[in-house]
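Long-time lurker, first post. I've been practising inverse folding by hand and with some scripts of my own, and I keep getting stuck on stretches where the structure tokens seem ambiguous. Below is the full token string for one chain I'm working on. Before anyone asks, I'm not after the true native sequence, just a reasonable design that respects the backbone. If someone could post their per-position residues I'd love to compare against what I wrote down in my notebook.
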């Protein structure tokens, strides 16, 4: 199947020599082709260039993109979008002044979602999550990492991971699964959380591995959650089964989570509101992608991660949605793109790099997604007629996506 997208106003985020990630000052650089064509062969990008250089050949289908732009689809490298029910009552509690910690201590927060997941059927979780994936796709997302973590028991965590496996089987999106057994501490383990860590190590990790359910392992290493020592024990257990880490770190405090992420060669460490000079120095030269979650910081009215300071030091930065019912109830990556520019003062080019190639790296897929490059998967979207690519983050209240292609097919 040979498909031609022609008369593209501007083809955005092209790469002639593909990279796995973009760092530091390079994040402000982005290549585009104006008055462009894009050729797709089956599920891959076969060629692109200026319309004047379009080769003469027959195509199975042609799409005229006059007045429209083409972008690679977003890679959303951090979500919790398998869950049961919403938590708008806690949203009202936050408005009334209760803190995240206060809500959690009275059984809200993660514990609230855990109870609902434990009671929900696998089929209901699957149907709800599939609908969310379809919504995310409509806003331009083509790859997503999904974590467990709302189970809090072995059976419920495995149920979530089985749902993610089913989503992989039926969805055209590229999906990665992460075992987040250590997302919170159940009430019955308060005061003896080392026993819950034992449960994660002795039951959750081996059983998830036996069924081939998890690509990665994650731990919420932060103040009020799991300690560095807890985290190291679980990461070492996961490593025995080939699970590379992706760490929740430094959302609540300078917890040591970034240092443990680098020590264990985590693919990413995420949140990072509390990131100082020592943490930045630790990340420099590592293979760990600093990943910021603007939706959670916005929704919880938290301080912002020092993104500019990170980039000025030479670090790469990724951005993801953190789609979940408690602290970031949106999987709209166009909104994350806007938050990156407005709240973190990123240039549009930096924000696009953060939500495509770098977020692709943060979920282990930037070798085949995250940019327009020959040989990569044909995951891209065609915009509605827009004037400039800067319009994408600027117009935060509307969906600028008209058509989405995943694996070379219109969805």
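-- Answer (accepted) --
I ran through it position by position. Result:
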């Amino acid at each position: 199947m040979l498909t031609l997208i022609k008369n593209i106003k501007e083809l955005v985020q092209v790469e002639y020599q593909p990279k796995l990630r973009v760092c530091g000052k390079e994040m402000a650089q982005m290549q585009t082709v104006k008055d462009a064509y894009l050729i797709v062969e089956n599920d891959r990008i076969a060629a692109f260039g200026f319309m004047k250089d379009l080769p003469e050949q027959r195509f199975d289908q042609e799409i005229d993109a006059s007045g429209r732009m083409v972008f690679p689809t977003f890679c959303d490298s951090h979500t919790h979008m398998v869950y049961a029910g919403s938590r708008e009552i806690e949203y009202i509690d936050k408005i009334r002044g209760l803190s995240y910690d206060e809500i959690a201590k009275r059984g809200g927060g993660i514990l609230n979602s855990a109870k609902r997941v434990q009671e929900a059927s696998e089929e209901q979780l699957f149907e709800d999550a599939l609908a969310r994936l379809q919504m995310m796709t409509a806003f331009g997302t083509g790859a997503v990492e999904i974590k467990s973590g709302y189970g809090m028991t072995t059976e419920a965590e495995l149920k979530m991971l089985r749902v993610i496996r089913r989503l992989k089987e039926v969805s055209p999106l590229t999906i990665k699964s992460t075992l987040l057994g250590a997302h919170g501490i159940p009430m019955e383990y308060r005061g003896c959380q080392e026993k819950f860590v034992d449960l994660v190590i002795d039951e959750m990790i081996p059983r998830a591995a036996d069924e081939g359910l998890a690509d990665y392992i994650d731990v919420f290493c932060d103040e009020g959650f799991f300690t560095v020592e807890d985290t190291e024990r679980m990461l070492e257990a996961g490593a025995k089964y080939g699970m590379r880490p992706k760490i929740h770190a430094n959302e609540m405090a300078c917890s040591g989570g970034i240092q443990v992420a680098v020590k264990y060669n985590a693919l990413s460490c995420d949140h990072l509101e509390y990131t100082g000079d020592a943490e930045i120095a630790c990340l420099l030269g590592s293979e760990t992608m600093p990943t910021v979650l603007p939706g959670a910081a916005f929704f919880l009215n938290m301080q912002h991660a020092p993104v500019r300071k990170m980039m000025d030091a030479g670090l790469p930065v990724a951005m993801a949605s953190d789609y979940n019912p408690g602290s970031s109830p949106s999987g709209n990556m166009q909104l994350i793109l806007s938050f990156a520019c407005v709240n973190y003062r990123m240039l549009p080019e930096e924000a696009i790099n953060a939500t495509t190639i770098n977020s692709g790296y943060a979920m282990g897929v930037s070798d085949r997604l995250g940019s327009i490059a020959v040989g990569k998967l044909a995951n891209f979207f065609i915009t509605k007629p827009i004037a400039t690519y800067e319009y994408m983050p600027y117009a935060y209240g509307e969906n600028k996506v008209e058509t989405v292609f995943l694996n070379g097919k219109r969805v």
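A couple of notes from the structure itself: The chain has a mean pLDDT of 96. The two ends are 16 Å apart (CA to CA). Happy to go over any region you disagree with.
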